[in-house]
From TrEMBL:
It holds the Pfam family DUF444. It comes from Vreelandella boliviensis LC1. SUPFAM superfamilies: vWA-like. This is UPF0229 protein. InterPro entries: UPF0229, vWFA_dom_sf.
Amino acid sequence: MREAYARRIAMRAPIKRALKEALEALEAEERKDTVLRNPARIAELKTEIERLEKRIAGVPFIDTYDLRYHQLSAQPQPSNQAVMFCVMDVSGSMTQNHKDIAKRFFLLLYLFLEKHYEKVELVFVRHHTAAREVSEEEFFYSRETGGTIVSSALSLVNKIIEKRYPVGQWNLYVAQASDGDNWDDDSNICRDLLVKQLMPQLQYYAYVEITPHDHQSLWHEYESVVKEFPERFAMRQIVEAGDIYPVFRELFKRRLSQS
């Protein structure tokens, strides 16, 4: 497994460096005043970022060999490994643009965690009225319709932690992306799941709401979670792609200052 992990690192490292440079260049360009922005350069960078993301996606995060022998291998110390849960609403109101913004946010967090842990596993959980663990490809590109019950995803994350990621052996992170839609009666259930079950186990929970509109019930219930766990639960709004990097830095400013 160690050899497979080394292979993945070697294959992804130069692509990740190029992606980091492209993301930083895009963020710098998008932060310029409208008059000074170069639309052609922005389009070029977005195309390059998409190309690099596809190349990274082509390198499996976990080899089949790793999965086969995972139970037989010596486990690293808890401080050396982390799991990142990517949670995303895929109901009818979530457009491909929403998903593209979410993907860039998730990628920033993944690159951040890879700097701090020897091993990082990814778990993709998507939901509408029901939640499923899926592959990376299905997570970002499969189309769904229907309403939204966010608690289904939070419950599934908790079950996966119980089955596969003992708290004493893993550092647990959750990143959630949504446009804010949820059944009103479900939002208080989400709050209770977070406060009573998930947050006591997690290192950090980051929620981004991708919408230009006013916040709905989910946001307001999550505000009460921030009050309970101000050091480990953070939430921000993203309106457009140019907000991604500033929002990421704001969400992780304390951890970034320690890196």
